[in-house]
Amino acid sequence: MRSITDHHRHALATLCMVLAAAVHTTESSAATASEQTFRSDTPGVHVTETALQKSSPAAGKLFTRHYGEEFGLVANTDVPLSYRFTSPFQRSGPVASADIDGDGWIDLVFGTDKGLLLYRNIQGKRFEQLPLRVSGERTRVFNTALVDLNNDRLPDLYFSLYRGGNHIIFNSNGTLRAEGLVSLPVVGPTFSSAAAFGDLDLDGDIDIALGNWTAGPWTRIPGESSRNVILWKEDSGYRAERLPGFPGETLSMLISDINQDGFPDLMVGNDFEIPESYYLGQAGGKLRLIKRSDNLFPVTTFSTMSIDSGDIDNDLSLEIYATQASGFTSTLPTNRASMLPLQTTTESCDEYENNEWRTRCLVRLKQHQIIHEAQIKRNPRLCLEMGVDSEIRGCLSHLLLIKSTRFDRDPKICVRLEKNWPNLAYICKAGHQPIPRYSQELIREKLRQQLGRNMLYSRTQSGAYTEMAEAMDADITGWSWTAKFADLDNDEWQDIYIVNGRFSSPKRATNVFFRNERGKRFANATRDAGLENYLSANCYTYVDYDNDADLDIVVVTNDGPIWVYTNNTQNGAGIIFELDDSKGNRAGIGGRIIIHYGPDGSKHQIREIKASGGFLSYDAPRAHFGLGEHNVVSRVEVIWSTGETTELSGKFRGGHKYLIGRTGG
């Protein structure tokens, strides 16, 4: 027994020496500062430094596109084409990224019509699918996120099932198993199309805002079934509270301290006629609905698909970007629509080489044309040309749904869908719910909406916002879904990447990459960056899958492969920060990090740790900064989610990741 103990002690000592060489941890009580020692003005704060990998090999463009299969990421494509015409089934599945097992490599999860696909990152070389089966009658996952919900520093798995409720699988020692499933309070009959996570009442744990969806375009003006809710985290579980304002078909929710007053705010983006609902956070977790008479926002998007916040000009104040259908793909094209080149669905198949994906695309293209023509001409006989029995029946059911909810306005037709298409029968019935009545005051105070272009807001000294999307050349991006800020070329300025596409449309616009021109304007650099792609997509995640301090992108298409865009940045250094907060929520969601660098620390940038925004898209809780020609950050400010601040000084080096933690008490 003694020999075994000695052996273990020797192994432990060896391990400690190896770790000491790899990372360096200091607390604020450190007596002296050196090259890898950090000073803090707050007791109990420590910093862990980890060297990242070398940059990806140089390439001709900023990004190199790969099929997901090259990395082991297999798309779920076993969906009838007719479903791709029918909301909400036309959407691509959701995607989220986080380090599930704590090995330092960011993992992925996808939602599909057959459940969840969980992938472990194998040291940036490939992804390995892990078993995770959601049993039961309803398995279609419409939303999913990876967020630490119980403060153990391991991301838990949230997901929303179509007509099956919202659920959490808690992470157990780096493993997600369906046996650990916990169901959340029932908040809506269909599913939650948007979810935002944050500590709204600043009590140290994560609350959940859920954006509900009932029948989308089949109703357009929904009733109480679509009212959004907050799930307040309490000791006994979650308590549901309905939000004031209009219930809408919500597509995006953002929890962000947009006015930087220390209280998290909530922005809700609704589709169709229902106006946006923006709430300002107040003490005790109270949320005040912004009114038109407040004169804070001059105009909002009409059919919002994505909202995000970020500092685009490095003045340490957050801007807000909201997208909708814009350009020729919108219902109200503007005179700037020609900025957006379009392709036909036939041309979009050219995105594939001569492989199985291209062959499949051409077959599906013929079916696409049949359904589109049958829909335009209202001629069900054309469905017989689909060839495959399941597609013929799917085409007919789609036309019946349109006939009932749009043309005849006859709920009796819904009964004909019940036997073979129960999901469509449900949507059909929901599409005939009575139009709700609202108070005149609520209608009078609704925020003004505008079709046809995106909105980019900047806060003025008065606290009100100016809208400047057109002035910044960021207003036209197609049928735009997820759009989020990130410094994709590590040049110190946050860019925007937008995926878009309406699968049922005969015209397609490319995804868009806006390069930030030093905070003055955005330049469309999509083709030059290697990000041009005309295949319809809804969501993506920014993920440094190879740990080389630049952001790669994983994109989920509507009816095609998963795409992996590898970032080939060579010139600009990147640096990453994570938080480990034992006083607030462990992942530091809602916290802000400000870096100072350059001559005498004269340059600065800010990031907010978020678990919301975009559309069906969630990124790992970390702050990535591009440093351009600089390699060292001299000072770091942390504004913790609970409001306290910490200032750290030292030599924070590009090409490294820093974990900043504080002890409880």
Word description of this protein:
The chain is mainly beta and 665 residues long. 12% of the residues lie in helices and 35% in strands. It is built from six helices and 44 strands. The strands form eleven sheets. The protein has a five-stranded mixed sheet, with no helix packed on it. It has a five-stranded antiparallel sheet with strand order 2-43-42-38-39, with no helix packed on it. Helix 3 (356-377) packs parallel to helix 4. The protein is globular, with a radius of gyration of 25 Å.
Q: Biggest sheet, in brief? A: 5 strands, mixed
Rg, please?
A: 25 Å
Q: In what order do the strands lie side by side in the largest sheet? A: 1-3-44-37-41
What spatial form do the alpha-carbon principal axes imply?
globular
Mean pLDDT across every amino acid position: 91
Beta-strand fraction estimate: 35-45%
Distance between the termini: 40 Å
- The number of distinct helices, counting runs of at least 4 residues, comes to 6
Taking pLDDT < 50 over at least 5 consecutive residues as the criterion, the unreliable ranges are: 1-35
Number of strands: 44
The structural class is mainly beta
**DSSP helix fraction:** 10-25%
